[in-house]
Design brief:
- This protein folds into two domains: 93 residues, no CATH class; 170 residues, no CATH class.
- Strand 1 and strand 2 form a beta hairpin.
- It is mainly β and 285 residues long.
Protein backbone atom coordinates (compact mmCIF):
# COMPACT_ATOMS: atom_id res chain seq x y z
CA UNK A 1 0.00 0.00 0.00
CA UNK A 2 1.70 3.14 -1.21
CA UNK A 3 -0.51 5.76 0.45
CA UNK A 4 -0.71 5.31 4.25
CA UNK A 5 -4.19 4.13 5.16
CA UNK A 6 -5.82 5.07 7.51
CA UNK A 7 -4.60 8.58 8.45
CA UNK A 8 -6.30 11.24 10.52
CA UNK A 9 -5.61 14.23 12.77
CA UNK A 10 -6.95 14.83 16.26
CA UNK A 11 -7.00 18.41 17.49
CA UNK A 12 -6.77 19.93 20.96
CA UNK A 13 -10.57 19.97 21.30
CA UNK A 14 -10.41 16.14 20.93
CA UNK A 15 -12.11 16.19 17.53
CA UNK A 16 -10.90 13.78 14.84
CA UNK A 17 -10.49 15.03 11.28
CA UNK A 18 -10.26 12.73 8.27
CA UNK A 19 -11.22 12.89 4.61
CA UNK A 20 -12.84 10.65 2.01
CA UNK A 21 -10.53 12.17 -0.60
CA UNK A 22 -7.06 11.95 0.93
CA UNK A 23 -5.00 10.14 3.56
CA UNK A 24 -2.10 12.60 3.49
CA UNK A 25 -1.60 14.45 6.77
CA UNK A 26 -0.34 17.45 4.82
CA UNK A 27 -3.62 17.69 2.90
CA UNK A 28 -5.66 17.37 6.08
CA UNK A 29 -3.66 20.14 7.75
CA UNK A 30 -4.16 22.35 4.71
CA UNK A 31 -7.93 21.80 4.83
CA UNK A 32 -7.94 22.69 8.54
CA UNK A 33 -5.57 25.64 7.95
CA UNK A 34 -3.22 24.34 10.61
CA UNK A 35 0.52 24.95 10.50
CA UNK A 36 2.88 22.09 11.30
CA UNK A 37 5.51 24.24 13.03
CA UNK A 38 5.28 23.51 16.74
CA UNK A 39 6.67 20.22 18.00
CA UNK A 40 6.00 20.37 21.73
CA UNK A 41 2.55 21.35 22.99
CA UNK A 42 1.26 21.42 19.45
CA UNK A 43 -2.45 21.84 18.75
CA UNK A 44 -2.91 18.54 16.91
CA UNK A 45 -1.54 15.01 16.71
CA UNK A 46 -1.13 12.89 13.57
CA UNK A 47 -2.51 9.36 13.74
CA UNK A 48 -2.02 6.36 11.45
CA UNK A 49 -3.99 3.11 11.63
CA UNK A 50 -2.50 0.62 9.19
CA UNK A 51 -3.15 -3.07 8.39
CA UNK A 52 -0.79 -5.56 9.98
CA UNK A 53 -0.77 -7.60 6.76
CA UNK A 54 -1.60 -5.83 3.47
CA UNK A 55 -2.37 -9.21 1.93
CA UNK A 56 -5.14 -9.85 4.46
CA UNK A 57 -7.00 -6.57 4.86
CA UNK A 58 -10.24 -6.71 6.85
CA UNK A 59 -12.55 -4.51 8.90
CA UNK A 60 -11.53 -6.29 12.10
CA UNK A 61 -9.78 -3.86 14.46
CA UNK A 62 -7.48 -6.66 15.65
CA UNK A 63 -5.93 -6.79 12.17
CA UNK A 64 -4.81 -3.16 12.35
CA UNK A 65 -2.07 -1.24 14.18
CA UNK A 66 -2.59 2.13 15.88
CA UNK A 67 0.37 4.49 15.55
CA UNK A 68 0.92 7.99 16.90
CA UNK A 69 3.25 10.24 14.92
CA UNK A 70 6.14 11.83 16.88
CA UNK A 71 5.20 9.84 19.96
CA UNK A 72 8.06 11.18 22.10
CA UNK A 73 6.82 14.76 21.93
CA UNK A 74 3.10 14.30 22.52
CA UNK A 75 1.36 17.36 24.00
CA UNK A 76 -0.05 17.17 27.53
CA UNK A 77 -3.65 17.42 26.36
CA UNK A 78 -3.23 14.16 24.42
CA UNK A 79 -1.48 12.30 27.26
CA UNK A 80 -4.18 13.36 29.69
CA UNK A 81 -6.93 12.09 27.38
CA UNK A 82 -5.17 9.20 25.63
CA UNK A 83 -8.01 6.67 26.01
CA UNK A 84 -10.62 9.13 24.77
CA UNK A 85 -8.35 10.20 21.87
CA UNK A 86 -7.69 6.63 20.75
CA UNK A 87 -11.38 5.78 20.98
CA UNK A 88 -12.31 8.76 18.81
CA UNK A 89 -9.69 7.84 16.21
CA UNK A 90 -10.88 4.23 16.06
CA UNK A 91 -14.45 5.47 15.55
CA UNK A 92 -13.26 7.57 12.59
CA UNK A 93 -11.44 4.51 11.23
CA UNK A 94 -14.65 2.48 11.45
CA UNK A 95 -16.44 5.12 9.37
CA UNK A 96 -13.66 5.23 6.79
CA UNK A 97 -13.33 1.49 6.20
CA UNK A 98 -16.98 1.43 5.21
CA UNK A 99 -16.44 4.18 2.64
CA UNK A 100 -12.85 4.01 1.39
CA UNK A 101 -12.15 0.29 1.61
CA UNK A 102 -13.28 -2.39 -0.85
CA UNK A 103 -12.56 -6.02 0.08
CA UNK A 104 -13.66 -9.55 -0.78
CA UNK A 105 -16.20 -9.37 -3.63
CA UNK A 106 -17.59 -5.94 -2.76
CA UNK A 107 -18.41 -3.38 -5.43
CA UNK A 108 -17.89 0.32 -4.69
CA UNK A 109 -19.00 3.37 -6.66
CA UNK A 110 -17.74 6.89 -6.10
CA UNK A 111 -16.71 10.24 -7.50
CA UNK A 112 -13.90 12.53 -6.31
CA UNK A 113 -12.99 10.00 -3.66
CA UNK A 114 -10.12 7.82 -2.44
CA UNK A 115 -10.47 4.04 -2.61
CA UNK A 116 -8.32 1.10 -1.54
CA UNK A 117 -9.34 -2.08 -3.36
CA UNK A 118 -8.26 -5.58 -2.33
CA UNK A 119 -9.05 -9.21 -3.01
CA UNK A 120 -11.60 -9.59 -5.82
CA UNK A 121 -13.41 -6.32 -5.15
CA UNK A 122 -14.53 -3.91 -7.88
CA UNK A 123 -14.34 -0.11 -7.84
CA UNK A 124 -16.08 2.14 -10.38
CA UNK A 125 -14.84 5.67 -10.01
CA UNK A 126 -14.86 9.03 -11.80
CA UNK A 127 -13.98 12.67 -11.34
CA UNK A 128 -10.71 13.24 -9.48
CA UNK A 129 -10.87 9.98 -7.55
CA UNK A 130 -7.74 8.05 -6.55
CA UNK A 131 -7.63 4.26 -6.32
CA UNK A 132 -4.95 1.87 -5.08
CA UNK A 133 -5.74 -1.67 -6.17
CA UNK A 134 -4.01 -4.93 -5.27
CA UNK A 135 -4.74 -8.63 -5.21
CA UNK A 136 -7.20 -9.47 -7.99
CA UNK A 137 -9.18 -6.24 -7.58
CA UNK A 138 -10.81 -4.57 -10.59
CA UNK A 139 -10.94 -0.81 -11.16
CA UNK A 140 -13.00 1.00 -13.79
CA UNK A 141 -11.81 4.61 -13.89
CA UNK A 142 -13.28 7.63 -15.72
CA UNK A 143 -12.60 11.35 -15.86
CA UNK A 144 -9.30 12.41 -14.28
CA UNK A 145 -9.17 9.48 -11.86
CA UNK A 146 -5.75 8.20 -10.73
CA UNK A 147 -5.08 4.51 -10.21
CA UNK A 148 -2.13 2.55 -8.83
CA UNK A 149 -2.46 -1.16 -9.59
CA UNK A 150 -0.43 -3.94 -7.98
CA UNK A 151 -0.31 -7.75 -8.05
CA UNK A 152 -2.87 -9.13 -10.51
CA UNK A 153 -5.24 -6.15 -10.35
CA UNK A 154 -7.14 -5.17 -13.51
CA UNK A 155 -7.83 -1.58 -14.55
CA UNK A 156 -10.06 -0.19 -17.30
CA UNK A 157 -9.17 3.48 -17.80
CA UNK A 158 -11.20 6.04 -19.78
CA UNK A 159 -11.14 9.77 -20.38
CA UNK A 160 -7.98 11.37 -18.99
CA UNK A 161 -7.49 8.75 -16.26
CA UNK A 162 -3.91 8.03 -15.15
CA UNK A 163 -2.69 4.55 -14.23
CA UNK A 164 0.55 3.22 -12.73
CA UNK A 165 0.71 -0.57 -13.06
CA UNK A 166 3.09 -2.87 -11.20
CA UNK A 167 3.56 -6.60 -10.73
CA UNK A 168 1.34 -8.57 -13.09
CA UNK A 169 -1.40 -5.94 -13.21
CA UNK A 170 -3.43 -5.56 -16.41
CA UNK A 171 -4.56 -2.21 -17.79
CA UNK A 172 -6.97 -1.56 -20.68
CA UNK A 173 -6.70 2.12 -21.62
CA UNK A 174 -9.07 4.13 -23.80
CA UNK A 175 -9.52 7.74 -24.91
CA UNK A 176 -6.61 9.91 -23.66
CA UNK A 177 -5.78 7.75 -20.65
CA UNK A 178 -2.12 7.65 -19.53
CA UNK A 179 -0.42 4.49 -18.30
CA UNK A 180 2.99 3.80 -16.75
CA UNK A 181 3.67 0.06 -16.74
CA UNK A 182 6.41 -1.68 -14.75
CA UNK A 183 7.51 -5.21 -13.90
CA UNK A 184 5.44 -7.74 -15.86
CA UNK A 185 2.36 -5.53 -16.20
CA UNK A 186 0.24 -5.80 -19.36
CA UNK A 187 -1.35 -2.80 -21.10
CA UNK A 188 -3.84 -2.80 -23.97
CA UNK A 189 -4.10 0.75 -25.31
CA UNK A 190 -6.73 2.17 -27.67
CA UNK A 191 -7.64 5.57 -29.14
CA UNK A 192 -5.13 8.27 -28.11
CA UNK A 193 -3.97 6.55 -24.93
CA UNK A 194 -0.33 7.08 -23.88
CA UNK A 195 1.83 4.33 -22.38
CA UNK A 196 5.35 4.20 -20.90
CA UNK A 197 6.52 0.62 -20.43
CA UNK A 198 9.62 -0.64 -18.65
CA UNK A 199 10.87 -3.83 -17.07
CA UNK A 200 9.27 -6.81 -18.82
CA UNK A 201 5.93 -5.05 -19.36
CA UNK A 202 3.82 -5.92 -22.42
CA UNK A 203 1.87 -3.34 -24.42
CA UNK A 204 -0.65 -3.94 -27.19
CA UNK A 205 -1.44 -0.62 -28.88
CA UNK A 206 -4.24 0.25 -31.32
CA UNK A 207 -5.64 3.40 -32.90
CA UNK A 208 -3.44 6.46 -32.36
CA UNK A 209 -1.99 5.24 -29.07
CA UNK A 210 1.55 6.38 -28.17
CA UNK A 211 4.01 4.06 -26.47
CA UNK A 212 7.51 4.50 -25.05
CA UNK A 213 9.12 1.13 -24.38
CA UNK A 214 12.23 0.55 -22.24
CA UNK A 215 14.30 -2.36 -20.91
CA UNK A 216 12.98 -5.74 -22.07
CA UNK A 217 9.38 -4.64 -22.61
CA UNK A 218 7.37 -5.89 -25.60
CA UNK A 219 5.01 -3.83 -27.77
CA UNK A 220 2.56 -5.01 -30.44
CA UNK A 221 1.30 -2.00 -32.31
CA UNK A 222 -1.21 -1.38 -35.10
CA UNK A 223 -3.37 1.34 -36.61
CA UNK A 224 -1.60 4.73 -36.57
CA UNK A 225 -0.01 4.15 -33.17
CA UNK A 226 3.49 5.46 -32.43
CA UNK A 227 6.22 3.62 -30.52
CA UNK A 228 9.64 4.72 -29.24
CA UNK A 229 11.72 1.69 -28.30
CA UNK A 230 14.87 1.76 -26.13
CA UNK A 231 17.13 -0.75 -24.46
CA UNK A 232 16.32 -4.32 -25.51
CA UNK A 233 12.63 -3.59 -26.13
CA UNK A 234 10.84 -5.55 -28.87
CA UNK A 235 8.24 -3.99 -31.18
CA UNK A 236 5.97 -5.79 -33.66
CA UNK A 237 4.38 -3.21 -35.96
CA UNK A 238 1.26 -3.53 -38.11
CA UNK A 239 -0.74 -1.20 -40.40
CA UNK A 240 0.65 2.37 -40.50
CA UNK A 241 2.36 2.19 -37.11
CA UNK A 242 5.48 4.32 -36.60
CA UNK A 243 8.47 3.06 -34.65
CA UNK A 244 11.59 4.88 -33.47
CA UNK A 245 14.15 2.35 -32.26
CA UNK A 246 17.49 2.68 -30.48
CA UNK A 247 19.78 0.70 -28.19
CA UNK A 248 19.47 -3.02 -28.90
CA UNK A 249 15.77 -2.77 -29.68
CA UNK A 250 14.27 -5.19 -32.21
CA UNK A 251 11.51 -4.20 -34.62
CA UNK A 252 9.55 -6.74 -36.61
CA UNK A 253 7.44 -5.19 -39.36
CA UNK A 254 4.22 -6.88 -40.46
CA UNK A 255 3.03 -4.23 -42.90
CA UNK A 256 4.26 -2.53 -46.06
CA UNK A 257 3.18 0.88 -44.78
CA UNK A 258 4.80 0.69 -41.35
CA UNK A 259 7.44 3.37 -40.80
CA UNK A 260 10.69 3.20 -38.88
CA UNK A 261 12.23 6.51 -37.80
CA UNK A 262 15.97 6.21 -37.41
CA UNK A 263 19.27 8.05 -37.90
CA UNK A 264 20.30 6.33 -41.12
CA UNK A 265 18.75 5.35 -44.43
CA UNK A 266 19.39 1.68 -43.77
CA UNK A 267 17.07 1.67 -40.76
CA UNK A 268 19.76 1.21 -38.14
CA UNK A 269 19.99 3.37 -35.01
CA UNK A 270 22.96 2.31 -32.92
CA UNK A 271 22.38 -1.45 -32.51
CA UNK A 272 18.72 -1.46 -33.46
CA UNK A 273 17.62 -4.38 -35.66
CA UNK A 274 14.85 -4.08 -38.23
CA UNK A 275 13.35 -7.34 -39.49
CA UNK A 276 11.99 -7.45 -43.08
CA UNK A 277 13.54 -4.09 -43.88
CA UNK A 278 12.78 -4.57 -47.59
CA UNK A 279 9.14 -3.66 -47.02
CA UNK A 280 9.81 -0.59 -44.91
CA UNK A 281 9.15 3.01 -45.83
CA UNK A 282 11.92 4.85 -44.02
CA UNK A 283 11.84 8.38 -42.71
CA UNK A 284 15.23 9.83 -41.90
CA UNK A 285 15.29 11.83 -38.66
Amino acid sequence: MCCQYFSCIITKDLKVHWSKRTMAHEDLLAELRLEDKKLEERDFVKIEISPKDVKKVSRNRDDWTFKVDEERTLPNWYDENVVKCQGACWKAWEESVQVNLAIDKEEKHGKDQLFFAYDSSTVRTSGSSTVEASGSATVIAYGSAKVKAYDSATVQAYGSATVQAYGSATVIAYDSAKVQAYDSATVIAYDSATVQASGSATVIAYGSAKVKAYDSSTVRTSGSSTVEAYGSATVIAYDSAKVQASGSATVELKSDCATVLCHSKIFVTEKATVVRASVVKAAEV
